[in-house]
């Protein structure tokens, strides 16, 4: 059995001069010290993971998931991490990438330079098992945005060249201009989507590439092609590749330089396939002809169904410990000058602006194509506007229609805000992409929230305009441009507050059904305490002093009511009483009777009766803006705390 037949027979297409120049520039940005003492490592560069351990505490005490694992992987080399279910593969990969904190004594070094969480995120890329992408973007757009969000500092032409190179290397030319796919629109296949995920990790020029089950869900042929593509790029660009992998074919397994087999969190075997063959033969468990070496090693350490295999694990542990003594020594801590210690350069202010601009551009493309983001809602708001226009059509100026006008304003604020839950699926998709890109060090929570806020504004405003134009004049609300635009402005602020509440809940509880239920509950709560179903002064004091006054619907509903009624006069549509007076729905003031006579009631009389008279429109607008700002800050904090 050859150690690695594909390592010497790679037929990768040589990169173009432009891409080679870009690669050299990126390597210069991430330059560090080489290690001439490790001759067995390709290129003289090495990533060292030393004494990594991790445990969790349960009812039965602490359980060690990873137990003192150490390994060295060279530049351009590939390490496969295998093991039965529960062996600690994913936990080890997370420890290596600093997604979990190793116990005391564990450390990670790149060419002798000690890495931390922040430095690792700048020199590595982590490709997760789930393929999280914006489904309405094409393959080329998805990889291109990942490149532009990185701190490479490359021009647009260099970025396009790099994207083309990745697409060609991963065999994605045939689907480069196809969309990823959404629940309502079929896209690329699962294997192609897996390669796109790998491409978004490779396009940022990582020094170390972590892959979590890169062949999951792929047939053996597709799995081999994906890993062969990764190997070609890793060799060409000197990328260290570390992958957890499940049941690979022998052709796929031969692409790896080293194979690590975990059993109960410990290293049962670490070496090449040739060494695996020798080890198994020495233990009296030779690999049968035409049998997959990986399957054979896993069968030796799979104790879940056969306790007698614990003897195999003990023998492998002993042999592995002896083999480690014969390996070249690890890098000692004092070999490198401290002045050359690897440090992450702070991104420039211009880069932060470019990141926000790129995120805004991507959000515009996403929202304009994604029917689940705003397309469905625009249809619902147009339908609601038509519903109001045909049911409350031309209300007129009878006092019996005053309560109908209040219903219009309540419906406009409450039910349109309630429909903000329709944006939860789109935000959850956007959030998943953000988490992957944030964990890979592309950007943080602040640019994400800022870009989301900027792009949400015009789309929500269009929703508010569409609804208002359809129903405002058909219902016969207060005429005049000033009143219409005030109605539009406060309706928009209410929608924006409801939208922010929905994304905040989705960020805290990123499960669609749970987020939907919580949003529905919160909107129902605000409806009950805003002052329509029960007058504010009749609310129990406990609810009145906090829930009513922190309710964004309170300020929008009361302002829309005042905007419509003040300046209008309504006639009492009832028979006169024997004394010549009228029984109006709302009592007229003496000033109204003196000015307009009997059987008339002014809009100001209604406002005074409802105790809305103290409204200051600019102050209420400022309060609504303040509520939105507070909710947006809470969204930012939720995303930051969720990571911690």
TrEMBL record:
Keywords: ATP-binding, Membrane, Nucleotide-binding, Transmembrane, Transmembrane helix, Transport
Transmembrane regions: 371-395, 407-428, 448-475, 487-517, 619-641
Subcellular location: Membrane
Alphabetized InterPro entries for the sequence: AAA+_ATPase, ABC2_TM, ABC_transporter-like_ATP-bd, ABC_transporter-like_CS, ABCG_dom, P-loop_NTPase, Plant_ABCG
Coiled-coil residue spans: none
Record-linked Pfam families: ABC2_membrane, ABC2_membrane_7, ABC_tran
Name of the protein in question: ABC transporter domain-containing protein
GO CC list: membrane
Keyword Nucleotide-binding (UniProt): yes
A GO term, aspect molecular function: ABC-type transporter activity
Homology family: Belongs to the ABC transporter superfamily. ABCG family. Eye pigment precursor importer (TC 3.A.1.204) subfamily.
Recorded topology in the membrane: Multi-pass membrane protein
PROSITE patterns cross-referenced by the UniProt entry: ABC_TRANSPORTER_1, ABC_TRANSPORTER_2
Lineage of origin: Eukaryota, Fungi, Dikarya, Basidiomycota, Agaricomycotina
Domain ABC transporter, chain residue ranges per copy: 47-289
């Amino acid at each position: 059995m050859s150690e690695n037949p594909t390592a010497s027979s790679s037929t990768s297409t040589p990169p173009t001069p432009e891409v080679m120049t870009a690669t050299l520039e990126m390597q210069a940005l991430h330059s560090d010290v080489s290690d001439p003492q490790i001759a067995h490592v390709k290129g003289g560069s090495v990533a060292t993971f030393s004494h990594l351990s991790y445990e969790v505490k349960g009812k039965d005490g602490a359980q060690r998931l990873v137990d003192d694992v150490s390994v060295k992987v060279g530049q351009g080399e590939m390490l496969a991490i295998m093991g039965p279910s529960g062996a600690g593969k994913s936990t080890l990969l997370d420890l290596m990438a600093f997604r979990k904190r190793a116990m005391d004594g564990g450390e990670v070094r790149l060419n002798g330079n000690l890495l931390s969480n922040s430095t690792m995120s700048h020199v590595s890329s982590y490709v997760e098992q789930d393929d999280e992408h914006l489904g309405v973007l094409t393959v080329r757009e998805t990889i291109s945005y990942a490149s532009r969000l990185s701190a490479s500092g490359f021009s647009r032409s260099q970025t396009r060249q790099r994207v083309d190179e990745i697409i060609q290397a991963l065999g994605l030319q045939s689907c480069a201009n196809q969309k990823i796919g959404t629940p309502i629109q079929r896209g690329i296949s699962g294997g192609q989507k897996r390669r796109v995920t790998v491409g978004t990790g490779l396009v940022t020029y990582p020094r170390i590439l972590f892959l979590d089950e890169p062949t999951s869900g792929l047939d053996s042929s597709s799995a081999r092609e994906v890993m062969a593509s990764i190997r070609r790029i890793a060799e060409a660009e000197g990328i260290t590749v570390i992958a957890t992998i499940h049941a690979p074919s022998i052709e796929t397994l031969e692409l790896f330089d080293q194979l690590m087999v975990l059993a109960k969190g410990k290293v049962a075997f670490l070496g090449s396939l040739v060494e695996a063959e020798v080890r198994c033969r020495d233990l009296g468990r030779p690999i049968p002809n035409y049998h997959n070496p990986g399957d054979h090693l896993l069968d030796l350490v799979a104790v879940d169904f056969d306790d007698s295999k614990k003897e195999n694990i003990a023998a492998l542990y002993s042999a592995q410990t002896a083999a480690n003594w014969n390996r070249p020594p690890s890098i000692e801590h004092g070999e490198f000058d401290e002045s050359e210690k690897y440090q992450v350069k702070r991104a420039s202010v211009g880069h932060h602006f470019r990141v926000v601009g790129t995120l805004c551009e991507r959000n515009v493309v996403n929202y304009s194509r994604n029917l689940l983001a705003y397309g469905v809602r625009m249809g619902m708001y147009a339908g609601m506007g038509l519903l109001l226009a045909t049911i409350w059509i031309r209300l007129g100026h009878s006092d019996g229609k005053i309560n109908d006008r209040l219903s219009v304003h309540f419906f406009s604020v409450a039910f349109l805000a309630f429909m903000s839950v329709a944006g939860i699926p789109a935000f959850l998709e956007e959030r998943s992409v953000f988490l992957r890109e944030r964990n890979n060090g592309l950007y943080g929570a602040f640019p994400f929230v800022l870009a989301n806020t900027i792009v949400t504004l015009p789309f929500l405003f269009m929703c508010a305009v569409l609804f208002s134009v359809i129903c405002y004049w058909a219902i016969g609300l207060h005429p005049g441009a000033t009143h219409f635009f005030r109605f539009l402005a406060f309706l928009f602020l209410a929608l924006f507050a409801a939208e922010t509440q929905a994304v905040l809940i989705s960020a805290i509880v990123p499960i669609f059904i749970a987020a939907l239920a919580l949003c529905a509950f919160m909107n129902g709560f605000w409806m009950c305490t805003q002052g329509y179903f029960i007058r504010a002064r009749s609310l129990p004091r406990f609810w009145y002093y906090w829930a009513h006054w922190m309710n964004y619907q309170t300020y929008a509903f009361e302002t829309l009511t005042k905007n419509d009624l003040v300046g209008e006069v309504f006639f009492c549509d009832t028979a006169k009483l024997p004394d010549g007076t009228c029984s109006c729905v709302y009592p007229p003031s003496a000033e109204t009777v003196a000015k307009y006579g009997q059987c008339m009631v002014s809009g100001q009389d209604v406002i005074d009766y409802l105790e809305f008279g103290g409204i200051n429109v600019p102050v209420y607008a400022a309060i609504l803006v303040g509520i939105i700002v507070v909710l947006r800050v809470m969204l930012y904090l939720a995303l930051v705390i969720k990571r911690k």
